[in-house]
Amino acid sequence: MQTLKQKHHPFCFSVKGQVKMLRLALTVTSMAFFIIAQAPEPYIVITGFEVAVIFFFIILYMLRLDRLIDCLFWPLLDIINSMVTAVFMIIISVLALIPETTTFIVLGGVFGLLAAVCCIADGALIYRKLLFNPSGPYQKKPIHDKM
Fold first, then answer.
1. Sign of CA dihedral 51, 55, 61, 67
2. pTM
3. CA distance linking residue 109 with residue 106, whole number of Å
4. If you average pLDDT over every residue of the chain, what do you get?
């Protein structure tokens, strides 16, 4: 008898991975425009922090550390991060677009809004995975089954 092995699908080639990479690229672009335009420091700091957090999650999923470190429920942390990031990016982007500013600040705001849309899509993908596949890799086994 042959046992059916679950085929390993690399994170970078999954839909979730592609959305995270796009989110990272848009946030880095937004931050770069804010730096070039010498925008107010909170714009640069918040986008820089988001770049670091997105990069952390990409590395976490690429190295499959979410399966190794199972004391935390990573999908929930990822959903919370996506929603908080979306709120921050929307606020920063709207603040960048409201006053009459330079072209680079406006471009940073536009890319920030696009990054916020990707954050919402990222959170929705993870939520859908949890909702429709609760017995997938994220469900923890009862303690009595560990033998």
1. negative
2. 0.80
3. 5
4. 84
Token representation of residue 116? 């916020």
Tens digits of residue pLDDT in 18-52: 899 999 999 999 999 999 999 999 999 999 999 99
DSSP assignment of 19-87 equals HHHHHHHHHHHHHHHHHHTT--HHHHHHHHHHHHHHHHHHHHHHTTHHHH-TTS-HHHHHHHHHHHHHH
Report CA-CA distances (Å) from 40 to 21, 96, 106, 138.
26, 9, 13, 40
Amino acid symbol at 64: R
Is the pLDDT confidence value at 93 over 80?
yes
Q: Residue 128 and residue 122: Cα distance in Å, rounded?
A: 10
